Amino acid sequence: MSALLTSPAPRAANPPVQRVVEVVARRPVNAYVELTLAAPEIADRAEPGQFVAFAIGGETSAMLLRRSIAIAGTADGVVTVVVAPHGPGSTWLAALQVGERVDVVGPLGRPFPLPEPGVPALVVGGGYGAAALVGLAARLGESGSAVAAVTGAASADRLCSVDELGEVASPVAVTTDDGSAGRRGWVTDAVAELIGDAGVVYACGPMAMLRAVAGAATAAGIPSYVAVEESMACGIGVCMTCVLPVIGEDGRTRFSRSCAEGPVFGGDRVRFADVGTLPWDVVGADAMGVVAP
Amino acid sequence: MSALLTSPAPRAANPPVQRVVEVVARRPVNAYVELTLAAPEIADRAEPGQFVAFAIGGETSAMLLRRSIAIAGTADGVVTVVVAPHGPGSTWLAALQVGERVDVVGPLGRPFPLPEPGVPALVVGGGYGAAALVGLAARLGESGSAVAAVTGAASADRLCSVDELGEVASPVAVTTDDGSAGRRGWVTDAVAELIGDAGVVYACGPMAMLRAVAGAATAAGIPSYVAVEESMACGIGVCMTCVLPVIGEDGRTRFSRSCAEGPVFGGDRVRFADVGTLPWDVVGADAMGVVAP
Amino acid sequence: MTTVETAVDMSTSLGSAPIPSPVLTASGCSAFGRELEPFDDLTAIGAVVTKSVQLRARSGRPTPRMAETPSGMLNSIGLQGPGIDGLLADELPWLAERGVRSFVSIAGTRVEDFAELAARLRGVPGVLGLEVNISCPNVESRGEVFACDPVAAADVVAAVRAAADPAHPVYAKLSPDVTDIVSVARSVTDAGADGLSMINTLLGLVIDPDTMRPVLGGVTGGLSGPAVRPVALRCVWQVHSALPGVPILGMGGIRSGLDALQFVLAGASAVSVGTAVFNDPSALSRIHTELAAALAQRGFASLTEAVGYAHR
Amino acid sequence: MTTVETAVDMSTSLGSAPIPSPVLTASGCSAFGRELEPFDDLTAIGAVVTKSVQLRARSGRPTPRMAETPSGMLNSIGLQGPGIDGLLADELPWLAERGVRSFVSIAGTRVEDFAELAARLRGVPGVLGLEVNISCPNVESRGEVFACDPVAAADVVAAVRAAADPAHPVYAKLSPDVTDIVSVARSVTDAGADGLSMINTLLGLVIDPDTMRPVLGGVTGGLSGPAVRPVALRCVWQVHSALPGVPILGMGGIRSGLDALQFVLAGASAVSVGTAVFNDPSALSRIHTELAAALAQRGFASLTEAVGYAHR
Ligand SMILES: Cc1cc2nc3c(=O)[nH]c(=O)nc-3n(C[C@H](O)[C@H](O)[C@H](O)COP(=O)(O)OP(=O)(O)OC[C@H]3O[C@@H](n4cnc5c(N)ncnc54)[C@H](O)[C@@H]3O)c2cc1C
Ligand SMILES: Cc1cc2nc3c(=O)[nH]c(=O)nc-3n(C[C@H](O)[C@H](O)[C@H](O)COP(=O)(O)OP(=O)(O)OC[C@H]3O[C@@H](n4cnc5c(N)ncnc54)[C@H](O)[C@@H]3O)c2cc1C
Ligand SMILES: Cc1cc2nc3c(=O)[nH]c(=O)nc-3n(C[C@H](O)[C@H](O)[C@H](O)COP(=O)(O)O)c2cc1C
Ligand SMILES: Cc1cc2nc3c(=O)[nH]c(=O)nc-3n(C[C@H](O)[C@H](O)[C@H](O)COP(=O)(O)O)c2cc1C
Ligand code: FES
Ligand code: FES
User: Fold this and answer.
1) Which residues in chain A are closer than 8 Å to D71, comparing Cβ atoms?
2) What sign has the CA pseudo-torsion A219, A225, A228, A234?
3) Residues with CB under 6 A from ligand 4
């Protein structure tokens, strides 16, 4: 009954594990830090679009909540993540040194659904969000899709994974708000030019960007899948803090958990304009005393 | 009016400072870890018997209270401490590596009062408490006192600073409860033999040992000074958590702060038997509803 | 460790219902259990205390729903959930099929809601008993929280006890945000509560220094985690000394076996682990093991011997 | 940083008494100020709030008097102090000689005690005003704490306001351990309180896993530190929304300038820093500087503009 272009992303094939893993490599990348973790069980299970959740600061830490970080890549036995030092938690993560150990849970969340073999794809990354698309682009290429990529950021130092994308996608359009690298402007400008050739669009980055890219894709009648970032307390689906208004298979909107039903949602299923509000037509809004207008 | 053998230890000559200092050396010593800190302003001000207080775990730590550690030694620009990993705080301290920085306040508390030049002294250390006596023994030697030392511990691995004491005192009697080093038995056995030659006794170590040594000295009519260990929240004298029943100059017992009026007290002034209780004759006990028997 | 464990009899009970382990989930901190399956053996823990359910499905509040605080967190979920129909249709059967015990938390805004929920849960397979979440606004009294008024709290408990399956122990879940928790405890036990769950979250608030407004959509929220543990232990201590015969399901900041031990020594015969699960999804099994070891090291042959031991 | 600071007018007041900085010590967390001299310029902070004084000198409770808790601590000092004579003879003159403002905290177990203390403090040099610590057991009512009973609390405040120097603002210090803090706030302001200090500690308990008994000699103790900050902010928020005209001295877990900013935005016109001083003896000066910078970054020309701004 739903007239939407996407179906909800299916569950991941494998359940997550919890492990204390060692940092085996650390590399500053512009404004970010790339950490490589020896985590074979997570590497084997992970699919593009999934994330991991790190415990912060050890036993005596005052920070209880895990920090969710997208999986940027997996190779034999290791998992790579790109961390942007922001507040205390991500700053602690970014300061981890080679040989130090960290408690991590993953892979978590639902991966990007792959299109029929051969369907041309456009991947769009904002800031460190680009990192999460490298593995996806490679997977798409293997399954016969032509892959174009757009990656953008506020400035050159906030770009990420441009070279890696170059190896698995072409063209790779780069934009920066200040023109300090690539073309001056927003990813949406480049997206507008490349979207015509795409049969499916994938995006990862800030909410505002996801909203714009999903809007462009839907307007062009092309299915899109976005990996969202919502504040998460548990990352595994038990706390209900990470919800967004998302349109389900049945066409009804529910507060869906970004960590368990997401982070990958159909771009035309996330009601971006209603995030942070309680629309009357969300399932169960009536019980909250919200009445239809 | 007081018939006691000691006068209360006078205030230190210099006020404390607060600095973030670097660990410049780290050396495991049996069950302990010796840390050397680049802290010139503390090194210049410190006198034997004083201590420093470390902040634990950095900005994101759930442990707010400082940990007090006796100053084991000072040399040009550096302060040395000996840490026994016990609970989370001292374990964190003992794990500090060379090059890491830590917030420290010191020197704190009152130093050991020195006797008239030439008065023979006996220094008695229990466990890591011996470390705090090395500087004192050296100072006593310089001022012409003959210095004998007794150091004891539960077992050989809990002994500390035996060699260092050997350089500044003689004889140096070593005892262990299990006989794994030196003579089997308690420091008090060795103290009993050496106390006859002493004009003053200094002790640092567990409360039970301090009590025994102070008792022996007082029984022998010899003044003694003990450096106590009471649980401290602030270390600087503002919280009133670290009090002990101590007899003052006027012969009246007060709950005195170990950090500010101590940690060095006259051995015959600390009412060891009453620690953890509220005797009726403590100043202000009446206002607490405690009545004279 | 295993040998140490097996030395101690860890079995206890929720009122009349025996359970093999004193470690339970906390309502709202493990949803309906499914998501913990990769991390814990749910059949081995005492029970899954389910997210508080109401009569109708609820969307819960708009985001943001949480804020991290020093050694704790603030939450304002608004009891998002499937409603009793969804619970009976999907969640409880899933648990029952796997042999997982459930302790069902019920919530409402009117006394009759609570009673109807209790009635709907009579004889449902796998359900051990009911936890009554009275930390909800009472629509009949200007939204004052039931748990903050001994009389309103007693009304709810009496209605639930009357409507519930006689085989289901009824635990009243108390709020610490009261002047005298013992009077509330006494009032609900007089009204028929078979046990007490304590504590629920403390009312708190955090302001976002950037927006310069409260972080939470709901303005205030519930404070939980190790930060509140001393308050929770004080509540358990006070109530156990006043009502030593009343079983207590203790919770509030339990993160380790030694934390759980403190609650047991203070008077809790079982414990719930909530926020710690967000930090460590395998906390339930770990805490059971650590508690068993801690009891063994202290020479207890059984958990029940240690209950209230700190009052000796 | 300095330029940023000086851009903001940090002056505020305690009732009628102007102070150059909104950052004060918290009663009992800086003794009588002396020990902070090596770490802070005491003349630059708002005032030293002195350890609660009673009529007679008090020994305080036996040790142990404290226990560390996650992001906080539990204390049970028992108001050790010199009594009003010692305060007047030694402590207040020391502060006055150095030009340090003092805000004197008074405590008692009978209404008359409070009134007598207030009278003894009339016209004492350097004394800005009085903070009435009503979190004490009321001997006339089976030891129930004054602060937990709106009527008893009002009796104390009325007696103090009547006896005190008319030039001394009287602040009532509220306990968070009540069902309805707004009703207590209303009751004491109706009784003549010129302002409110909030919050005092939360009642808590910790059990020593080794002795298997409560850690504190006094069994229960007061919980303080960042752990309680969300509760303190909630109390300040609730009272400022109900009584926007009443000045609030906010406290509870303030450790940084941004923490202090949260209290100001919630409605506090000044703040006390307590437990954080144990962690960082120079916290007072640091927090003043950080708060000034935070206000400047947010475009406030003066502290007073930001008071209650989160309620807009
Ligand atoms: C699915 C997912 C994938 C992510 N991938 C990455 C990544 O690859 N690299 C990276 O640097 N960051 C990533 N983030 C964002 C990252 O989780 C936050 O930047 C981080 O949690 C901030 O924590 P903090 O302590 O540094 O900041 P603080 O602001 O101190 O965090 C306070 C609280 O808010 C939450 N929070 C704050 N900002 C965010 C945010 N943007 N998203 C979610 N929660 C937030 C934190 O988890 C914490 O609970 C991802 C988030 C999600 C949900
Ligand atoms: C004046 C003085 C000098 C000291 N010198 C040394 C030294 O040279 N080397 C060394 O290893 N230790 C020394 N200590 C003891 C050291 O401070 C404690 O071992 C340490 O605080 C324990 O903290 P924790 O977190 O490891 O243990 P925990 O038991 O987790 O500490 C919990 C709380 O209790 C307090 N506490 C616990 N044990 C003690 C104790 N024995 N004394 C005082 N407070 C305690 C802690 O400070 C903390 O506030 C000294 C203590 C004092 C008061
Ligand atoms: C995110 C979250 C949701 C909660 N939801 C409920 C709930 O639905 N019903 C309830 O009775 N308690 C609920 N609680 C309170 C917990 O069950 C528990 O009483 C409290 O968090 C203290 O325990 P803790 O510190 O171990 O989390 C919730 C707590 C959290 C953190
Ligand atoms: C060791 C200690 C002693 C205290 N003594 C008093 C006191 O004498 N009078 C009082 O009103 N409050 C007292 N308090 C409470 C503090 O003034 C303050 O209200 C509370 O600690 C919360 O602030 P904080 O988290 O910044 O410490 C004391 C607190 C501590 C930690
Ligand atoms: S983060 Fe807990 S449910 Fe999603
Ligand atoms: S430790 Fe605070 S007064 Fe001694």
Assistant:
1) 62
2) positive
3) B 239; D 26-29, 51-52, 75, 77, 79, 105, 133, 173, 200-201, 222, 224-225, 228, 251-254, 273-276
The C-alpha atoms of residue C242 and residue C245 are separated, in whole angstroms, by 9
Burial of A10 (0-12, 13-18, 19+ CB in 10 A): exposed
- Active site annotation includes D29: no
List of chain A residues whose C-beta atoms are within 8 Å of the C-beta of residue B96? none
Q: What part of B 195-234 touches C (C-beta under 8 Å)? A: none
What ipTM did this prediction achieve? Answer: 0.96
> What residue in A sits closest to D70 (Cα-Cα)?
A62
CA distance D71 to chain A (A): 6
Q: Tokens for B248, please give them.
A: 């003052």
The distance of D48 to chain C (nearest Cα, Å) reads: 26
Distance CA C64, CA C41 (A): 32
B34-72: b (≥16 Cβ within 10 Å) or e = bbbbbbebbbebbbbbbbbbbbbbbebbbbbbbbbbbbb
Contacts of D226 in chain A (CB under 8 A): 62
Closest chain B residue to the Cα of A57, Cα to Cα: B60
Query: B39: which residues sit within 8 A by CB, 6+ positions away?
Result: B19, B21, B77, B78, B79, B104, B106
Look up residue A224 and give its amino acid.
Answer: S
Q: Do A55 and C279 touch (CB under 8 A)?
A: yes
Q: Distance (Å, rounded) from C-alpha C291 to C-alpha A49? A: 38
D60-to-B252, D69, D74, D207, D210 alpha-carbon distances in Å: 16, 22, 15, 21, 25
Contacting residues of D for A62, CB less than 8 Å apart: 70-71, 226
Ligand 6 centroid, distance to B86 Cα (angstroms): 21
Q: Which residues of C have a catalytic role annotated?
A: 136
- For residues B233, B239, B242, B246, the Cα torsion angle rounded to the nearest 10 degrees is 170
Instruction: Count CB atoms within 10 A of the CB of residue D208.
Output: 15
Residues D132/D114, Cβ–Cβ less than 8 Å? yes
- Dmax of chain A from CA atoms? 58
A233 and C57: CB-CB below 8 Å? no
- What tokens appear for C80 in the block? 């998002």
pTM of the model: 0.96
List the pLDDT tens digit at each of the 312 positions of chain C.
344 445 899 999 999 999 999 999 999 999 999 999 999 999 999 999 999 999 999 999 999 999 999 999 999 999 999 999 999 999 999 999 999 999 999 999 999 999 999 999 999 999 999 999 998 877 777 778 999 999 999 999 999 999 999 999 999 999 999 999 999 999 999 999 999 999 999 999 999 999 999 999 889 999 999 999 999 999 999 999 999 999 999 999 999 999 999 999 999 999 999 999 999 999 999 999 999 999 999 999 999 999 999 999
The answer for A 7-66 residues in CB contact with D (under 8 A) is: 62
User: What is the number of the ligand 1 atom nearest to the C-alpha of A72?
Assistant: 8
Q: Are strands C48-49 and B224-227 parallel, antiparallel or unpaired?
A: unpaired
3-state secondary structure of D93: helix
CB C175 within 8 A of CB C200: yes
Distance, CA of D159 to CA of B264 (rounded, Å):
45
